Amino acid sequence: MEHKLHVEFSANREGVVLDSLLLACGQNRLAAHAKVTDFANPKIDGSYEGVLVTREIAELLNKRKTN
After folding, report:
1. Which of 24, 29, 20 is nearest to 1 (CA)?
2. SS3 call for 13
3. Residue of 26, 21, 28, 27 lying closest to 5 (CA atoms)
4. What values do phi and psi take at 62, rounded to 5?
């Protein structure tokens, strides 16, 4: 299963910022952005967007069953 992952983030004592996450496999895509602050009492703010091509997922699952 060929896939691509691209991540851009920064971190310091105050928190972590996930500027960009892109995970792609075939036509399936997941993109996300997030910010985590106050590690002692974590607060998370973020969003994600995805595209799932069910035909591709079904084909992948069928290949795993036959192997």
Report:
1. 24
2. coil
3. 21
4. -65, -40
